[in-house]
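Page 37, continued from 36.
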């Protein structure tokens, strides 16, 4: 029987916290390979509850979130100007190596990757795995997709997979593992569910009811990760939720980019969730689209168990709203907040994402956004901008800067970018963050 090892590596960054983090794509690949007859071994360096994770980091808050074990590491040269500690998040490296001792030699190893500038974790895992097993390593995920050339040269993987899985991916996996994998229909890829049986202990799951996003915001790489937009079969989604309910899992994180789009879809599912009496806590990881939060949608979200709602606004500047994609305006946003409050969400349960440091966005402009949101009595969740390959904004930047960012994904880190952004500096951010903290503490 062919054997695959799936690995979710460490994250190197200035901050990282377990907000129900799961390697969603990798878990779907497990489902796919198991259906093709593979035996699967799995190591998730970011699984706080695993036997190989330090005991003191298994504690979670009432919603199952918690801090990762981490070790401070030396900053790469590029980050010397960033006044923060740089860390490797995830299980101790020795525990990873020990875990490998208990595993059989696989035919193929699949490693996933997160945001582009955290790739040091990928390289570390690939080096250890290569040393131990000498079998083909295939790298997929966000870094592999957005910085493919860099990953080919520097990740240590033998093959770099760009984008979502498909029949070409299956053919590659079959060839490397010297087995035949039957091709699938397009819909089967879209309806794949993640394989949570790989986790012995589990207090949350990530789900997607939809794939991709119908919008095209100039700062977002969603289209490079999944072309088009797909809403999954509602019955399949409900069956999936039912399996989590039966396993006693309460916390469900949405990884969708456009969960509420054409909201009759989500309304139908939420009505059934309410009817079945599931006791889930739902939390959207990405910002929800204000335009689809009408009175009924807000009421259904409240009854179904949504908490810690995040709504996208990004900027209150009308011309910037239009030039970056036009997904929301201030009136639409205010109406969404009114609907959420009317449905029973407290101001402290509603967070709004605003971007800070978009191309041409000054500190003054960000302050206007902060003051606009402050009047609504909800929490402000600032997101610092950095240019990401695969976005329209990335294509617009000067060729020499673009080349530098392509050559070194570390430069795409938002904290690093603050140190070179002429429109919105590190000092601007410190000043505005203090104002936001003070506003948030009063909500
Ligand atoms: S920012 Fe949100 S709405 Fe815009 S393209 Fe990305 S996922 Fe879609």
């Amino acid at each position: 029987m062919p054997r695959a090892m799936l690995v979710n590596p460490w994250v190197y960054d200035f901050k990282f916290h377990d907000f129900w983090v799961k390697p969603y794509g990798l878990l779907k690949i497990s489902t796919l390979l198991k259906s093709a007859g593979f035996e699967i071994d799995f190591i998730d360096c970011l699984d706080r509850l695993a036997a190989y994770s330090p005991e003191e980091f298994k504690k979670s808050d009432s919603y199952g979130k918690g801090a990762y074990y981490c070790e401070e590491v030396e900053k790469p040269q590029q980050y010397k100007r960033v006044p923060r500690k740089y860390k490797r998040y995830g299980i101790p490296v020795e525990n990873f190596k020990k875990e490998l001792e208990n595993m059989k030699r696989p035919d193929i190893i699949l490693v996933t990757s997160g945001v582009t500038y955290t790739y040091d974790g990928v390289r570390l895992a690939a080096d250890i795995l290569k040393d131990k097993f000498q079998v083909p390593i295939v790298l997929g995920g966000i870094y592999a997709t957005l910085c493919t050339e860099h990953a080919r040269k520097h990740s240590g993987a033998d093959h770099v997979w760009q984008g979502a899985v498909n029949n070409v991916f299956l053919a590659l996996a079959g060839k490397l593992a010297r087995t035949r994998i039957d091709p699938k229909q397009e819909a089967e890829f879209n309806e794949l569910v993640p394989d949570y049986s790989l986790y012995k202990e589990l207090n949350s799951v990530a789900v997607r009811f939809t794939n991709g996003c119908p919008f095209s915001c100039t700062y977002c790489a969603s289209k490079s990760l999944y072309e088009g937009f797909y809403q999954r079969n509602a019955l399949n989604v409900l069956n999936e939720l039912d399996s989590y309910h039966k396993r006693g899992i309460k916390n469900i994180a949405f990884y969708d980019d456009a969960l509420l789009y054409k909201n009759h879809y989500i309304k139908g599912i939420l009505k059934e969730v309410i009817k079945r009496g599931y006791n889930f806590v739902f939390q959207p990881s990405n910002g929800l689209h204000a335009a689809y939060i009408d009175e009924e949608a807000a009421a259904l979200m409240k009854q179904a168990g949504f908490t810690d709602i995040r709504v996208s606004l990004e900027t209150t500047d009308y011309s910037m709203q239009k030039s970056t994609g036009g997904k929301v305006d201030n009136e639409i946003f205010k109406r969404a907040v009114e609907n959420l409050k009317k449905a029973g969400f407290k101001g402290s349960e509603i967070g709004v994402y605003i971007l800070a440091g978009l191309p041409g966005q000054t500190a003054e402009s960000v302050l206007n956004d902060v003051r606009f949101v402050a009047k609504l009595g909800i929490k402000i969740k600032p997101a610092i901008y950095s240019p990401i390959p695969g976005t329209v904004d990335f294509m617009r930047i000067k060729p020499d800067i673009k080349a530098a960012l392509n050559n070194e994904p570390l430069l795409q880190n938002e904290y690093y970018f603050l140190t070179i952004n002429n429109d919105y500096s590190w000092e601007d951010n410190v000043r505005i963050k203090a104002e936001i903290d003070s506003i948030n503490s009063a909500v």
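Residues 3-187 form a domain with the Rossmann fold fold (CATH 3.40.50.280). Flag for discussion at group meeting. The radius of gyration is 22 Å.
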